[in-house]
Structure to design on (184 residues):
């Protein structure tokens, strides 16, 4: 199934059909992001350890806009040298700033869809139709899995790459784990 952005440029009925070449960009390397974060702290008279800068990147799975947002929130929390406590406050701010959007994401989802997201949040990326997974996550029948995948992909909440399913938004995944109860 094609992603919306790909469809915009590749389907004849879409407004940007053959508008340009489609380029798939990889996430920016962690080491490069760490260098950038450390440098930006330094030029503003603040300090951050490479370990804490790496924690920023790893926490948001190198998603560039979230790296930028979390690093900025950490910078705001930091007086002179960034600490773990500053990171925790920035992380909480990141959740708070995005909470309304995440509530909008889950608004109107069925119990099956929420349970499917719980399965992914728990680390399940495939084999959803196995009897024990269907039962443990209360996903209904194996025939229901295809409908769940299609619905959640159309809502742009998950990404399906081959047989692997994952959240599109790494911070939503973290927020979901922390804030959404599993339906049983």
């Amino acid at each position: 199934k094609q992603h919306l952005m790909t469809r915009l440029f590749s389907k004849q009925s879409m407004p940007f059909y053959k508008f340009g070449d489609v380029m798939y960009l990889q996430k920016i390397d962690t080491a490069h992001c760490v260098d950038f974060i450390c440098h930006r702290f330094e030029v503003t008279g603040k300090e951050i350890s490479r370990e804490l800068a790496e924690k920023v990147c790893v926490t948001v799975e190198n998603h560039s806009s979230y790296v930028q947002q979390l690093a900025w929130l950490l910078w705001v929390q930091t007086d002179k040298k960034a600490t773990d406590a500053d990171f925790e406050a920035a992380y909480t701010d990141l959740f708070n700033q995005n909470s309304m959007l995440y509530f909008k994401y889950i608004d109107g989802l069925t119990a099956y869809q929420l349970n499917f997201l719980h399965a992914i949040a728990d680390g399940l990326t495939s084999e959803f139709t196995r009897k024990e997974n269907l039962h443990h996550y209360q996903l209904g029948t194996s025939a229901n899995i295809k409908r769940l995948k299609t619905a959640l992909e159309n809502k742009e909440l998950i990404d399906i790459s081959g047989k692997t399913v994952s959240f599109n938004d790494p911070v939503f995944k973290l927020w979901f784990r922390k804030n959404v109860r599993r339906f049983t």
Notes: The chain is about 60% helix and 5% strand. The beta strands are 158-161, 164-167. The radius of gyration is 19 Å. The longest helix spans residues 84-106.
